[in-house]
Amino acid sequence: MKRTKISDIFDPALIGSRVCVKGWVRTRRGNKYVQFVALNDGSTIKNIQIVFDMNDISDETLKPVTTGASICVEGILVESMGKGQSVEIQAKELTVYGTADPDTYPLQKKGHTLEFLREKAHLRPRTNTFGAVLRVRSALAFAIHKFFQERGFYYLNTPLITASDCEGAGAMFQVTTLPLNNLPKNEDGSVDYSKDFFGKPTALTVSGQLEGELGATALGAIYTFGPTFRAENSNTPRHLSEFWMIEPEMAFYDINDNMELAEDFVKYCIGYALENCADDIAFLAEHFDPQLTERLRSVIDCDFVRLTYTEGVEILKASGHKFEFPVDWGTDLQSEHERYLVEEHFKRPVILTDYPKDIKAFYMKQNDDGRTVRAMDVLFPKIGEIIGGSEREENYDKLLARIEELNIPMKDMWWYLDTRRFGTVPHSGFGLGFERLVLFVTGMTNIRDVIPFPRTPNNAEF
Ligand code: 4AD
Ligand code: MG
User: Fold this and answer.
1) Among 110, 184, 262, 295, which lies 20 to 30 A Cα-Cα from 353?
2) 262 C-alpha to center of ligand 2: Å?
3) pTM exceeding 0.70
4) 278-299 as b/e, with b when 16 or more CB fall inside 10 Å?
5) Which atom of ligand 1 is nearest to the CA of 383?
6) Which atom of ligand 1 is nearest to the CA of 390?
7) Which residues have any ligand 1 atom within 6 Å of their CB?
8) Domains of the chain (ranges plus CATH)?
9) Residue whose CA is closest, atom 25 of ligand 1?
10) Rounded CA gap, 42 and 123, in Å?
């Protein structure tokens, strides 16, 4: 008979009818008269309780129904007498699809640590925690598309293989088909990239922004949503080597329009998750972060603080707080500084603007003071920087001067400069780190636990 997903089984209209469910056994307990199986199929955090009357079924038949086994059950949905569930299924027919040997199934026991589960990343989606996180992640991805599509933004796919380094940090993964043990060489001993697949050095992209600007200056407003790669050796709870980024880019937006959009956008996503993932968020709050729901609500309800970098640094210096990294005008802010401003000083998200030009990328619009650029970072409680963006330098001469000042190879940049040569317009954009948003919404504390298969230094097993 037709299968009903467990997410749909708690419908009172189904009570009394015969249903069919399929899923993985979470637990089995009971006695010689009756056995209870908690079944989950991934469609919801909730399990359905299956009741086996041991008069109808032999011990032997039920033996393979152990934690992790996959089964199909047909039976009658009835109101439950027991505590903890509204309905249960009185089993009539059982099919075992696959067993999971209790002696070797890694998730046999409950209550594994997140560290242990990272070593079992191929199976951890079957736990309650990762089921909840992955459903929230999926809902957030949908919310992101919904937000932009409803506002007339076009989804633009930018290349993953690129010849330019958008952020200028040099932390790129090279893409090559050259034989590494026998590289073709030029006369001066350097590698002859004309022999490489693309005839030049290429790498995995660190950002789709530069191509996004090409889209925005044609379609008006676009967003990208795709994987991004950074070969920085940062082993922190907030960095991945492969992460997903959402990069909207808008013609005719100045920095204030940009800040407004960023604030509306993150609030919308958080609100969407609260509304559509209530069960999963409640589970995560109960098990990991009692303040989670309250924190999510408070971010939606408040106005984000808007502050210049210079003012931010003054607050930090005057705070008397002892930071691990000293802070002074011109230094890049560490997450401890960002979090101090957000969690201790203002107690709400902060958008910091007008950073020193030397710590920001070449494309940001230069302010008249000659020292700062029209950057904006959105800083969040528990996370620090969740969004980085700016108004873009639309003036051809100023942009070219900055590119030359930073010794960025012009041969990589001519196409980007063409946007400023032909019909240049004021424009702005930003990048939201998807996993940092998922971290915030799920209340998890390590970014490795909010992406199905994390890529970090020395870790690409699964
Ligand atoms: O601040 P970033 O480097 O900005 C850019 O890449 C711009 N091109 C964005 C734009 O203006 N279109 O990165 C943007 C965001 C950060 O705020 C952070 O949330 C996330 O991407 N991020 C990372 N997330 C996980 N792991 C990493 N290694 C990350 N690096 C940046
Ligand atoms: Mg940044």
Assistant:
1) 295
2) 14
3) yes
4) eebbebbbeebbeebbebbeeb
5) 19
6) 11
7) 166-167, 207, 209, 230, 239-240, 243, 245, 247, 385-389, 429-431, 433, 435-436
8) 6-98 (2.40.50.140), 124-171+206-449 (3.30.930.10)
9) 239
10) 13
| DSSP-derived 3-state class of residue 66 | coil
Give the three-class secondary structure for 132: helix
399 sits in which H/E element: helix 396-405
C-alpha of residue 245 to centroid of ligand 1, in Å: 7
Q: CA angle, 267 as apex, 263 and 272 as ends, to 5°?
A: 150
Distance 207 CA to ligand 1 centre (A): 8
pLDDT at 446: 98
Name beta bridge partners: 392.
364
Contact (CB, 8 A) for 136 and 293: no
pLDDT attached to residue 450: 98
Please give the backbone phi and psi of residue 410, each rounded to the nearest 5 degrees, phi first. Answer: -60, -30
Q: Is the dihedral of CA 59, 64, 66, 69 positive or negative?
A: negative
Measured in Å, residue 172 CA sits from the centre of ligand 1 at 14
Convert the pLDDT of each residue in 25-37 to its tens digit.
999 999 999 999 9
Nearest ligand, CA of residue 378? 1
In ligand 1, the atom with minimum distance to the C-alpha of 378 is: 17
What is the pLDDT, as a whole number, of residue 111?
84
Residue nearest to ligand 1 atom 17, measured at CA: 387
Say what the pLDDT of residue 16 is. 97
Question: What is the position in ligand 1's atom list of the atom closest to the CA of 245?
Answer: 21
Ligand 1, atom 26, residue with closest C-alpha: 239
CB count within 10 Å of CB 80 equals 15
Residues of the chain with pLDDT under 70: none
For residues 96 and 64, the answer to whether their CB atoms sit within 8 Å is: yes
User: In the block, which residue shows the tokens 């089921």?
Assistant: 131
Calculate the CA dihedral of residues 272, 278, 281, 283 and round it to 10 degrees: -170
